[in-house]
Design a protein that fits this description.
Structural class: alpha+beta
Radius of gyration: 36 Å
GO molecular function: RNA binding; tRNA pseudouridine(55) synthase activity
Number of helices: 17
Protein name: tRNA pseudouridine(55) synthase
Family: Belongs to the pseudouridine synthase Pus10 family.
Distance between the termini: 41 Å
Shape: elongated
Organism: Glossina palpalis gambiensis
Number of domains: 3
Number of strands: 16
Largest sheet: 10 strands, mixed
Helix content: 25-40%
Keywords: Isomerase, tRNA processing
Length: 547
C-alpha cells in the first residue's frame, strides 16, 4: 500500500513539474484568447486546473488522430484502477469533451468500440472481440480440473508493442515537447493496464476470484508482422549501439528495450529512420498464440518402509538400460500424483537419506516428500490419502503411512542437520569361526566410538573422495540362535555412516572397523534400517472415512 501511495505522489509531483514548464506556453495561449489577467495568475490552483484541462484535451485529440483506442488514451492520461472500468465517467472527471463517446459507454462496455482499424499502440489488446477470444480459449482448456476458486492472469506481449509505445513517445515529444519527459514513459505500461482491465473481466466470465496464489493462466500473444519489426529493430540496435570489436552479438530482450530504448539515450531522428513516428494504424490485430494453466506447487510428505532387498531408491539406469524394473520413487509417484497433477515427470522426490538396493527400511519408516508443481488442488483428504496408502501397500515392496500435505517451510526437516541425525541399524554378520565371549565383549560398546571413513569405492563414481569423521553412538552384539558363526549387531550411528564398510573395513579405508575391533575377518550378510531419528512429518491416522 505504501508503494502505491509513493508511486501516486511521485506521479503528482511529476505532473506539477510538467505544468510549471508549460506555464509560459499557456500564458501565451490565454493572452491570445483574452482570458488571462493578473488575478488569475495569482490563483495557482485555478491555473493548474485550466492547464490540466487544456493539456488533457489536446492530448486526447492528438491520440485520437493517431488511431489510439479509448483505453490507451486513458493510459496516456495516467488513469488508475477503476478509472478504466467506465470510460465516459473518467473522461467527464477529467473535463474532456469526447464527441465520439456516447451515452451507451458504461461499465458493461468499458472496452473500446469496434473500429475499422485496430489501435496503433495496443494492436487490439483491449478490444471486446479480443477479450472474448481469450475467454473462449480459456474455457476450452482443462481449467475445471483445478479445484480452486481463485485465478490470476499473466500476459506475455510481443516485443513489437514496446517499439510502438516508444514510437508514440517520440510522437508526443514532437507534439508536446514542453511537458513530455525524455526518461519517464508518458503512459501506464501496457502490462499494468492489461492486469487492471483483463483480470476482472476474465474472473467475472469464469465465475472465479482474483488471487495471486490461484491458478495462473498464462496468455501468450503474438502478431504476424512481429518478425519484420524485430529485423528492423536489430538493424536499429546495431546502428545506435555498435558493439566493440570481437565482442559477442547482444540479443535484444524486453529488459534491454526498457533500459536503453528511451528518448534520453536514443535520438528520435535515428529511430525515425527505421520506424514511423507516431506509429501507423494497422488492419491486423494481435493473435492468441497459446493458453497455459499453471496450478500452485504443493508438497506431499509421508514415511515409507522398504520391505524387499531387490528395489532401488531411484530409477537405476546403466548405459541407457534399466537395471531394475522399479524403484521406491516411481512406486510412490505413480500412486500419489494422478489425483494431484497431470505430469508425473516433473514431480521431485526427496527423502531423508536412502538405502542400498539390498537394504530394507523397517520400523516407522523413512521420511520423504514429493514436490508437485502445477497441482490440481492444495487439499488431500484423509480418505484419499488412505486409498493411496492402500494402493502402495499392494505392491508388496514398500508401504507408506502418514501421507499428508505440508508447507514449503517444513522441508528444512528433510535436509537440515542431516549429519547430526542418528540412525538405527540391525546387521547380520558372518564370522569364519564360531563367536566367542571375548568377541561379544569387544562388540558390546554402549559408550560408542569415533571412526574415520573414506568414501567407499562403490560410490566414488558419484561422491568425492574424502575422509569423514563419523560417530558410532552405541554397538550391541549377540549370537544368532541358529548359527554360532552369525552375529546380530545393533548399531546406532551418525547419519552418513557407511555401515557395510564399518563392518568389514574395506581394506583399511574405515578405521577402526568391526573387523579391527575383534581382530578377525567379518562380513555383512544383511542389513536393515530400524529407525531414523527424525520426528517428521507429524503422525497422522488416515482413514477410509474423512473425519
Amino acid at each position: 500500500m505504501e508503494d502505491g501511495i509513493l508511486s501516486r505522489l511521485n506521479f503528482l509531483k511529476y505532473r506539477v513539474n510538467r505544468v510549471k514548464r508549460t506555464l509560459c506556453v499557456v500564458k501565451t495561449y490565454f493572452q491570445t484568447a483574452g482570458l488571462l489577467n493578473i488575478r488569475m495568475l495569482c490563483n495557482y490552483s485555478l491555473i493548474l486546473k485550466m492547464v490540466s484541462k487544456k493539456i488533457n484535451q489536446d492530448l486526447v485529440d492528438f491520440l485520437e488522430d493517431c488511431g489510439v483506442c479509448q483505453i490507451c488514451q486513458l493510459r496516456y492520461l495516467k488513469a488508475r484502477g477503476n478509472e478504466y472500468q467506465s470510460i465516459k465517467e473518467t473522461f467527464q472527471k477529467l473535463n474532456i469533451k469526447y464527441e465520439k463517446l456516447d451515452d451507451n459507454c458504461s461499465e458493461e462496455s468499458a472496452m473500446k468500440k469496434p473500429r475499422k482499424d485496430v489501435c496503433s499502440t495496443c494492436l487490439g489488446l483491449f478490444s471486446k472481440e479480443f477479450q472474448q477470444c481469450i475467454i473462449e480459449a480459456i474455457l476450452k482448456t482443462d481449467i475445471e480440473k483445478y479445484d480452486y476458486r481463485d485465478v490470476v492472469v499473466a500476459i506475455s506481449l510481443p516485443m513489437m508493442l514496446q517499439i510502438r509505445q516508444l514510437s508514440m513517445w517520440y510522437g508526443l515529444l514532437e507534439r508536446f515537447s514542453s511537458f513530455i519527459d525524455m526518461e519517464k514513459a508518458p503512459d501506464v505500461p501496457l502490462k499494468e493496464a492489461a492486469k487492471l482491465i483483463l483480470n476482472p473481466i476474465i474472473c467475472r466470465e469464469l465465475h472465479r476470484n482474483y488471487e495471486a496464489n490461484g491458478v495462473q493462466i498464462n496468455v501468450t500473444l503474438a502478431h504476424n508482422k512481429e518478425l519484420d519489426e524485430l529485423v528492423k529493430l536489430q538493424k536499429l540496435h546495431e546502428t545506435a549501439f555498435p558493439r566493440p570489436p570481437n565482442s559477442k552479438r547482444q540479443d535484444i530482450s524486453r529488459g534491454l528495450i526498457e533500459k536503453q530504448y528511451i528518448p534520453k539515450r536514443l535520438k528520435g531522428e535515428l529511430f525515425k529512420q527505421f520506424f514511423p513516428v507516431p506509429p501507423t494504424v494497422v488492419a491486423e490485430p494481435l493473435n492468441l498464440k497459446s493458453i497455459e494453466l499453471l496450478g500452485p506447487t504443493i508438497f506431499v510428505a509421508g514415511r515409507y518402509c522398504k520391505l524387499t532387498r531387490e528395489l532401488s531408491h531411484t530409477p537405476w539406469i546403466l548405459n541407457g538400460h534399466r537395471v531394475m524394473k522399479d524403484s521406491i520413487e516411481e512406486i510412490i509417484i505413480r500412486n500419489v500424483t494422478p489425483l494431484l497433477c497431470n505430469d508425473q515427470s516433473k514431480v521431485i522426490f526427496m527423502s531423508s537419506g536412502r538405502e542400498d538396493v539390498d537394504v530394507r527400511c523397517l520400523g516407522k519408516g523413512r521420511p520423504f516428500v514429493l514436490e508437485i508443481s502445477n497441482a490440481f488442488t492444495t487439499k488431500l483428504s484423509s480418505a484419499a490419502a488412505y486409498r493411496i496408502e492402500c494402493d502402495i501397500d499392494k505392491s508388496k515392496k514398500i508401504s507408506v503411512r502418514h501421507l499428508q500435505i505440508v508447507k514449503r517451510e517444513e522441508l528444512v526437516h528433510i535436509k537440515s542437520g542431516e549429519e547430526k541425525k542418528r540412525k538405527f541399524y540391525r546387521a547380520l554378520c558372518m564370522l569364519q569361526e564360531p563367536a566367542t565371549s571375548d568377541i561379544l565383549e569387544k562388540l558390546n560398546l554402549p559408550q560408542g566410538f569415533e571412526i574415520k571413513q573414506k568414501t567407499p569405492i562403490r560410490v566414488l563414481h558419484r561422491r568425492p573422495l574424502h575422509t569423514r569423521p563419523r560417530m558410532v553412538y552405541s554397538l550391541k552384539a549377540w549370537v544368532h540362535k541358529e548359527n554360532c558363526k552369525i552375529l546380530v549387531l545393533d548399531i546406532v550411528s551418525q547419519a552418513g555412516t557407511y555401515i557395510k564398510e564399518l563392518v568389514h573395513g574395506e581394506f583399511g579405508r574405515t578405521v577402526p572397523s568391526i573387523a579391527v575391533l575383534i581382530d578377525r575377518p567379518i562380513d555383512i550378510v544383511a542389513l536393515d534400517v530400524m529407525a531414523i531419528d527424525l520426528d517428521w512429518p507429524k503422525p497422522i491416522k488416515n482413514s477410509y472415512f474423512d473425519e
